[in-house]
Amino acid sequence: MFKKDLSLILFLLSVILLSNACTKDVEVPTPDPADRISGRTVRYTVLVVSAANTTFKSAQATQGIDSAIVSLVMNDSIYSIATDTNGLAAFNNLAAGVAAVTIDYPNHTRANMVVDLSAPSDTGYDATNLRNASTMVALFPLNGNGTATINGRLFADLDLTTAGLENAPVGIKVSTLIESDQLVNYVNHTGDGEILSISYENAANSTVSDANSDYSIIVPASASGLKIVIRTDDFVYDQIDAGGIPQRKIFHADADTITAISGVMQFRDIVFN
Predict the structure, then answer these.
(1) What does the pLDDT look like over 127-155, one tens digit per residue?
(2) Which member of 11, 147, 226, 240 lies 3.0 to 4.6 Å from 159 by CB, making a disulfide possible if both were Cys?
(3) Could you give the CA distance from residue 86 to residue 84 in angstroms, rounded to a whole number?
């Protein structure tokens, strides 16, 4: 009986010693003070709104787009979240750094952004080492409600022996695109989430002039007015000079800019030189 008790005691002692040996080797690492993001995370929130019927950066621009897909790429990892009914998509537990963000929604321009989520200083973190950053981004409709229509006619002086201008030839390409310098006006960020760059896909459209030298094109628009650049292809034509002799000439029209307002039809004729 004594031998059995002794064996049990020795067994228990060995288990305690083994347990102490295992826990002794496990040490909690001390964060390196030089590592500014050690143990710290970023919660990044994206609010996606439509520019169609809102004045951006105003109280009216709070209605978000439901079910837009927001994708974020950081450190070789890809995260995709659908916005909720308020147009919000939140990414938790991100490391500080630069992230690439894309926003997709049917029949709207696709937004591509590069966002800086790194902290400018050690401030901005709460007691749990969490920092918040957020971005509001407007998307532009490509058809239907919220777009605008531009109509016009193409003119050129094809015959110098007659007064006035003639209709330009049939089938000249007319292209439109969103003027890029204004895009910064359609994003807004708070906290540490600076937008380094933004571009919109599907923002260019084109058509060709008809038999009457007319063109009509649907373009993205906004309630506050979206600047749209109109360009045309050059064309070659045998212009009749003052002596009645045909002279081959390249006709060119300078780019023009028009402000597209949601639901408004506008007219812009184009004159080639």
Answers:
(1) 555 678 888 899 999 988 889 999 999 99
(2) 240
(3) 5
pLDDT in tens, 19-46: 443 333 333 333 333 334 445 678 899 9
Does 147-179+203-272 carry CATH code 3.40.50.720? Answer: no
Q: Which helix (H) or strand (E) holds 11?
A: helix 2-25
Delimit the CATH 2.60.40.10 region(s) of the chain.
Answer: 41-139, 147-179+203-272
Side-chain-side CA neighbours of 259 within 13 Å: the count stands at 5
Helical spans, DSSP H, in 179-254: none
Q: Which residues contact 50 (CB under 8 A, 6 or more apart)?
A: 63, 65, 108, 138, 139, 140, 141, 146
State the distance between the two ends of the chain, measured CA to CA, in whole angstroms: 116
The CA-based angle 56-59-60, given to 5 degrees, is: 65
Would you tell me how many other CB atoms lie within 10 Å of the CB of residue 257? 10
Report which residue type is found at 173. K
Quote the pTM value.
Answer: 0.75
